[in-house]
Design brief:
This is ATP-dependent DNA helicase RecG. Helices cover 36% and strands 17% of the residues. A 6-stranded mixed sheet has the order 10-9-13-14-16-15, covered by helices on one side. The protein contains 21 helices and 21 strands.
C-alpha cells in the first residue's frame, strides 16, 4: 500500500503517530539512515517517512533545508536503483516544515545500503529471515496491474502486431479484448478490465511505456572499431515486438555475410546470424529484472555483439551451467505470453539454439559474463572455420546430424588442437564422470581419438575428421620450430592452471581463459596451446610485433586458433592490439 499526502498528513497539519506505516526521523538523519528506513518500510507494507518532526516551531532550521530531489536521488542511489520514492514538503500550523517521503510497497525484498535485508516492524528495523523473504521474491512483477492503467494504454496497431504473431494460436480469431484476455494480459481490476505490465510491455503506447515501465528502454550503440567510443546511438522505447524489428534493422544494416559452397548448395555465414541475435535479444527482454530502473544496452562492434542485461541470470543459473540448468523464468506472465505468440520456446531451448547455430557456423559459442546485478552476453564474430561449416553440412547430407554435445567437443578440438577430459567436461558443462560415454561414442564413430596414456591423456580429432577439415599432418613435436625450444621456459611462468571444479557445484564455465596444456605425447604432431603462446610472445619480442598470419605460419594452425591465442594474450596483459579486424591487426608486447 502506498500512502499519499492526504493519508499521511491531515488537512490541519496533524502528523500521524509512528507505527506500522509511518516512521518519524530527526532532522539530522544521514542519507544512509534515511535510505535504510525507506528500504525497511518498503519491505514491510509501504508507508511514509517523516523527516524533521523534531524541529521546534519558529526554529531557524527545519526540513525545508532538504531539497526533495536530493532525497529522491539519494534513496535511489543508495538502494541500487531498486526503490523510487515521492518526496514533498509540508508546513505545519506552527510554521515548521517537515519532509514526507512516500515509500511504495516493494514487489520483492530489497537490500539496505550495507547489504543487509531488513524490514520495519512498526517500531524498529529488524532482519528479514530467508523464509520470510522467499515468497515475496518469487512474485511476478510483469503480472501486476498499475493502479492508473487503462485500456487507453494499449496501442491498437501493436495489438494487431501481436495478433499477426499469434496467428496459429487458438485465440487468434477472437476479438481484441478476448484475444488479450486469453493471453492473460488483461484482468479485472477495480471494476474494469485493466492491462498488466506484461500487456504494456507487449503492446503499450509510448506514453504508457514512459509512465509505467520507462526502464524497458533499449539503447543501441554502433562502434566502428573495437574501442569503447561509439559512432551511432539510438534509444528505443517501444513494445517488445517493435523493439525486435527495429534492432534487427539496425544490426542488419551493418551486418555482412560470407558464402560457403557445399556441393551444389551455398551457405551464407553472417557476422551475426539473425536467428542467434534475435534469440539473444528475446532472452534479454523476456528475463531481465524490470524492477531495476536500468535499460538494456546493445553494443555492435566489428568483431562482436554485446547485450548488457539488468538483473543478472535467474537464481541458480551461471555461465557454467546455463546449458544444463532447468529453465527459470523471472517474468512468468511475459514469458508465457511470448511463448503462446510463438516468439520464445516453452521448453527453454533458446540458449541451446544459439550454441548450436554458432558452432555449426564454425564460430565460438556465446560468452556470458555475470556481475552482481547484471549479465553481459557476447556473440563473437572475428571469423569462422569454413571447413568446419562444410564438414557439419556434409554430415547432415549423409543423415548424420550432429548433436549439440558432439558439436561442442568437435568445435573445441578444432580450435584448440587437443583437450583433456576435464577441459571437455567444462565445455560440455557436465561433471567429468558423465563424459566417458559421450567420448567413447565419438571414438567408436571415428570422430575423435585418444592421445597419450595415464594422467597425460588427451583427446584430438581423428585423422579422418582432420582430413575432412583440410588439416594436413603437422610436424612432430621433436621437429618443432626453433623458436619453440628457445621459448619453452618463457611460457611456464605465464601459463595459468585450469580451474578445478569446486564442490558441491559440478558445473564450471566452458574452457578457462588460459589453461596449461597436458603433457603432449610424442605421437601427437604440432605445438600445443602453451607452446603456441610461447611462439607468439617470441615472435613479438623478435620482430616488435606479431600478426595472425605470422603465428599461423610458425605453428601451422588456423586463423581462428591464432586469433584466439592472441586475444587471450591481450586479456592476460601480455600483448597490446594495434589496428582492427582479424587479418589487419598486429600485436606488440606490453612494456
Amino acid at each position: 500500500m502506498t500512502l499519499d499526502a492526504t493519508d499521511a498528513i491531515s488537512p490541519l497539519g496533524v502528523l500521524p503517530p509512528p507505527g506500522p506505516t509511518c516512521i518519524h526521523l530527526p532532522l539530522d538523519v544521514t542519507p544512509e539512515g534515511l535510505a535504510r528506513h525507506a528500504v525497511g518500510l518498503a519491505n514491510a507494507r509501504g508507508g511514509t517517512v517523516l523527516v524533521g518532526v523534531d524541529a521546534v516551531s519558529g526554529s531557524a532550521r527545519d526540513a525545508g533545508e532538504l531539497h526533495p530531489l536530493m532525497i529522491t536521488h539519494a534513496i535511489f542511489e543508495l538502494s541500487g536503483g531498486r526503490l523510487t520514492v515521492n518526496v514533498q514538503h509540508h508546513r505545519l500550523p506552527g510554521g515548521a516544515r517537515v519532509l514526507a517521503v512516500f515509500v511504495p510497497h516493494a514487489p520483492y525484498v530489497l537490500a539496505a545500503p550495507d547489504g543487509s535485508v531488513i524490514t520495519w516492524d512498526g517500531a524498529h528495523l529488524v532482519p528479514v529471515t530467508p523464509g520470510e523473504s522467499e515468497p515475496v521474491a518469487d512474485q511476478d512483477f510483469t503480472a501486476t496491474v498499475p493502479p492508473d492503467a487503462s485500456l487507453a494504454d494499449l496501442d491498437p496497431a501493436e495489438v494487431a502486431r501481436l495478433r499477426g504473431l499469434g496467428r496459429r494460436a487458438s485465440a487468434a480469431n477472437l476479438p481484441d479484448l478476448d484475444f488479450l484476455r486469453e493471453l492473460g494480459l488483461l484482468i479485472p481490476s477495480g471494476g474494469a478490465l485493466r492491462p498488466t505490465l506484461a500487456a504494456i510491455l507487449l503492446a503499450g503506447t509510448p506514453a504508457a511505456l514512459r509512465a509505467h515501465v520507462p526502464q524497458s528502454e533499449v539503447c543501441f550503440y554502433h562502434h566502428q572499431t573495437t574501442d569503447v567510443e561509439f559512432q551511432f546511438r539510438e534509444d528505443l522505447l517501444r513494445p517488445i515486438p517493435a523493439l525486435l524489428t527495429r534492432l534487427a534493422e539496425l544490426i542488419q544494416a551493418r551486418n555482412r555475410f560470407t558464402p560457403v559452397q557445399v556441393g551444389l548448395f551455398r551457405i551464407e555465414v553472417w557476422d551475426q546470424d539473425e536467428v542467434v541475435y534475435r534469440e539473444a535479444l528475446l532472452n534479454a527482454l523476456t528475463h531481465r529484472d524490470y524492477t531495476l530502473r536500468d535499460a538494456v544496452h546493445v553494443h555492435h562492434f566489428p568483431d562482436r555483439l554485446e547485450i548488457m542485461n539488468p538483473g543478472g541470470l535467474p537464481g541458480g543459473i551461471t555461465p557454467g551451467n546455463i546449458l544444463r540448468h532447468q529453465p527459470k523464468r523471472r517474468n512468468p506472465l511475459l514469458a508465457e505470453s511470448l511463448a503462446r505468440l510463438g516468439l520464445v520456446e516453452r521448453a527453454g531451448v533458446g540458449v541451446d539454439k544459439m550454441y548450436s547455430l554458432m558452432l555449426r557456423h564454425g564460430k565460438e559459442p556465446p560468452e556470458y559474463t555475470t556481475y552482481p546485478d547484471s549479465v553481459t552476453l557476447a556473440l563473437h564474430s572475428p571469423g569462422f572455420d569454413a571447413e568446419f561449416v562444410r564438414f557439419v553440412a556434409r554430415k547432415q547430407e549423409d543423415m548424420q546430424t550432429l548433436s549439440l554435445d558432439v558439436l561442442i567437443v568437435l568445435s573445441l578440438l578444432a580450435r584448440e588442437g587437443e583437450a583433456t577430459r576435464a577441459a571437455l567436461a567444462r565445455a560440455l558443462q557436465l561433471p567429468e564422470d558423465r563424459t566417458p560415454r559421450l567420448l567413447r561414442g565419438m571414438e567408436e564413430h571415428g570422430l575423435i581419438r585418444r592421445a597419450g596414456v595415464g594422467r597425460g591423456i588427451a583427446y584430438v580429432l581423428s585423422d579422418e575428421v582432420r582430413g575432412a577439415l583440410g588439416r594436413p599432418a603437422l610436424p612432430a613435436i621433436e621437429a618443432a620450430p626453433p623458436a619453440l625450444a628457445a621459448t619453452a621456459a618463457v611460457v611456464a611462468p605465464v601459463a595459468v592452471p585450469a580451474r578445478p571444479v569446486p564442490a558441491p557445484e559440478p558445473f564450471q564455465p566452458a574452457a578457462p581463459k588460459v589453461a596449461r596444456a597436458p603433457r603432449r605425447p610424442a605421437d601427437i604432431s604440432g605445438p600445443n596451446t602453451a607452446e603456441v603462446r610461447a611462439i607468439a610472445l617470441a615472435l613479438a619480442r623478435e620482430h616488435g610485433r606479431v600478426r595472425n598470419v605470422d603465428l599461423r605460419g610458425a605453428c601451422g594452425i588456423t586463423t581462428q586458433q591464432a586469433w584466439r591465442t592472441l586475444r587471450r594474450l591481450v586479456q592476460d596483459g601480455l600483448l597490446r592490439k594495434l589496428g582492427t579486424g582479424t587479418r589487419d591487426a598486429a600485436y606488440e608486447l606490453l612494456s
